[in-house]
Amino acid sequence: MIESFVLTLREGTEAALIVGILAAYLGKVGRKDLYRYLYIGTAAAIAASLIVALIFGELYRVSGEVFEGIATLSAVVVLTYMILWMSRNSREIKGELHEKVDSIVASRRVLGIAGLAFLSVFREGVETVLFLGGTLAVSSFNSVITGLMFGIAATVFFAGLMFKGMYMLDLRKFFKYTGIILIVFAAGLTGQATRALQAAGILPGTIAAWDTSQILSEHSVLGSLLYTLFGYSSQPSVLQVVFYLTYLALIVYLSVDFTGYHREKDYADPFSPLKSQHWFYGFVRSRWVPNILFAIMGIFLAFLLVVGYFGIGIGPFQEGYLKLGQFYLKGNDNNLWNFVIWVIWLPLVSISTVFLGRFWCGNLCPLRGLANAARSISDKLLGKAPNAPYMRAGWVLPVSFIVITLIVKSYPVQSVARLGTYLFISIFVLAVSVSFLFRRGTWCRYLCPIGGWLARIARLSIFGIRPKSTTCDNCSTKECLSGSEKAATCPMFLNPNQLDSNRYCLECWNCVKNCPRNGIHAGLRMPGAELLKPYSPNVWESVFIAGLIGMYMAFVRWEVVLPELPFPFFALGSIISAASLYLIVCAAASALSGTKYREVITNFGYIFLPIEFGTAIIAMGDDSLEFFHILVPASIILLCATFIWSMLLGVSITRNHAGRKAIFAFIPVAFALTGILLVWLRWFASGNVIDLT
Predict the structure, then answer these.
(1) Can you tell me the distance from the alpha carbon of 239 to that of 677, in angstroms, rounded to the nearest whole number?
(2) Which of 109-118, 406-415, 655-664 has the lowest mean pLDDT?
(3) Which of 198, 224, 353, 605 sits CB 3.0–4.6 Å from 457 for a disulfide?
């Protein structure tokens, strides 16, 4: 009853306000003789709304769950659009109506007054019918009708007071707060519509996200109230929860300007720098950082290589047990090497990059220490670094990542400890050779497969380094470029005073140490802030992101779909297929929005980066997830979080590149993201859904 009352009061007040504005203006211009046309149009709109309600009710009765789901989603879309539109355009409504009346009066088309009143009121009536029809999914017919009648009575009462000048309603606050209430209702309806479409077989069934029926049932007094107000369910399906949260996240994002709190003019992207007195700067400027960290990790890795190569039993591994449980997974060697590298290190270094950027590459990775040592030896034997050749082939980095992942999947590298050590030793030898022959930093920027993986994730990081433009523009010495006695130049050939992306920055702190004016700042930002436009887009990286989603799908389904086909061929075919589908989605977005095709291809791939990261952790970190017995819940959480993240990026990127036609560019992207989500949920959270509504 509450939701139907609030909706009727809001929409009725909006309709009454429009009629009142038209009547007042006609009186002001001395055309009270046109009132009858105003009343005719209003009465006709009310009658037409009732007819739509009757048709709607008959379709609902005949079609059942399918119509219930589709109609409810339609109501949510229309209502949300009107709430957002009203919040942004409420001040202009009066002026627009006056202009239309002037035009009608000047042209002597008096029936136009009836038409204007009809269209204005009928729109509110259709919205009311749609949303009330949707509320039937969560409320009884009698409850909806009761709320409707009370809403109409309240509307008539307040409208009468306002028209007589006895009560001045703050319309802006009224629409704001009722809009918030209706958005919460709409989120609940989104979840219920999802449940109905799953029960009807339109959407795939998923397991329940939780079961609180023993604690709080929908049939209890409190549960019924929460069910009506917020769409509460004691056994919601996973997809129901995902779509519910996605709706709320999108509405909040569209309603709140998160970038307003960050000084975007001073930095390359929305960024909140740490204050110059922060203890972190003292840490990174220490002469021991990062060298001491390299040494510690190098010693530990050397120890692990010995353990893995010779199959040495260490501690609880000798008995075959860990304190956390038995170390037995897919026939893996019960070896400390396998546990540390595949169960702990691989997922940890990937997830930590979302929070710290490429901190691993710049401060902990032993490969960088070996590469630097090899370059120093080469400088002494063959000449200084300026005489060493460059390698500028950006395509090599992503290709190296694909090659190494294909090797890991094609051979039992993750299960046989000695094979794993062979792989890492080979990588070490290659890193040393490249560093000996090419300039310092060549391995990390252009060849390292681990760096190729982390470079993309770093774009999502909440932590980064950015120059303050007002400081750097007035700097004439540019120590960040030339280096100083404190530290060498940037090992990745970057220009620190123009840094606008986390992709290549290793967070080695050289630029922070060298800057004498505190112009290079470490700081925090909204997750994925550099992708909001995005900053520094690359067309090949954009397509590559889409292709990788196909590769991760191949990881999961190869043994089910085509086990007789060699995995590298299956994976490459999946990469090409996913990239081709991305190009098709871009073509649709370009055609619908009128945005240039190349611009769409270059920028829209970053929309898929969060969900690519989520599916990568599921596909490549399966050893870790299975070892800790969290494969299903972790997969669901990753898919839910990264799907919402990608949808938010989709809204931001399409708005930046398609402008007013952003919604048309967003539709094919949203369908693609939803398709990816449904496929992965079918694999990891499939289940039967019973419509309990």
Answers:
(1) 9
(2) 109-118
(3) 353
| SS3 category, 465 | strand
415-449 pLDDT tens trace: 898 999 999 999 999 999 988 888 888 888 888 88
CA 635 to chain centre: 16
Per the CB < 8 A criterion, the answer to whether 494 and 504 are in contact is yes
Is residue 336 within 8 Å of residue 307, measured between CB atoms?
A: yes
Q: Tens digits of per-residue pLDDT, 449-507?
A: 898 889 999 999 999 999 988 888 888 888 888 888 888 888 888 889 888 899 989 99
Q: What are phi and psi of 208, to 5 degrees?
A: -75, 140
Instruction: State how beta strands 272-273 and 520-524 pair.
Output: antiparallel
Q: Please give the C-alpha separations between residue 408 and each of 111, 300, 414, 591, 620, in angstroms, as whole numbers.
A: 75, 22, 7, 40, 10
Domains in the chain: boundaries: 2-201, 537-684
Please tell me the distance from the alpha carbon of residue 180 to that of residue 198, in angstroms, as a whole number.
27
Instruction: Tell me the C-alpha to C-alpha distance, in Å, between residue 466 and each of 455, 461, 512, 641.
Output: 16, 13, 10, 27
Q: Judge whether 382 and 276 are in contact, CB under 8 Å.
A: no
Find the helix or strand (DSSP H, E) in which 379 lies: helix 366-382
User: Which residue in 224, 223, 216, 359 sits closest to 289, CA to CA?
Assistant: 359
Contact present, 238 and 211 (Cβ < 8 Å): no
Whole-prediction pTM value?
0.83
Q: Which residue has the tokens 């519509």?
A: 193
Structure tokens that stand for 652 in this block: 């931001």
Q: Are 570 and 595 in contact (CB under 8 A)?
A: no
Q: Answer whether 73's CB lies under 8 Å from 195's CB.
A: no
Both structure tokens of 323: 């304190």
Alpha helices in 438-514 (DSSP H): 442, 449-457, 469-472, 479-482, 510-514
Question: Is the Cβ–Cβ distance between 504 and 455 less than 8 Å?
Answer: yes
- 596: tokens are 């240039």
What integer pLDDT is reported at residue 44 of this predicted model? 86
Closest CA to 639 of 352, 242, 346: 242
The contacts of residue 517 (CB under 8 Å, 6+ apart) are 471, 475
Question: Quick count: other Cβ atoms within 10 Å of Cβ 427?
Answer: 18
Label each residue of 552-590 as H, E or C. Answer: HHHHHHHHHHCCCCCHHHHHHHHHHHHHHHHHHHHHHHH
For residue 635, the one-letter residue type is S
CA distance 284 to 266: 23
Within 10 angstroms of residue 389's Cβ, the number of other Cβ atoms is 9
Beta strands in 319-387 (DSSP E): 321-322, 325-326
Q: Which three-class secondary structure string do you get for 19-74?
A: HHHHHHHHHHCCCHHHHHHHHHHHHHHHHHHHHHHHHHHHHHHHHCHHHHHHHHHH
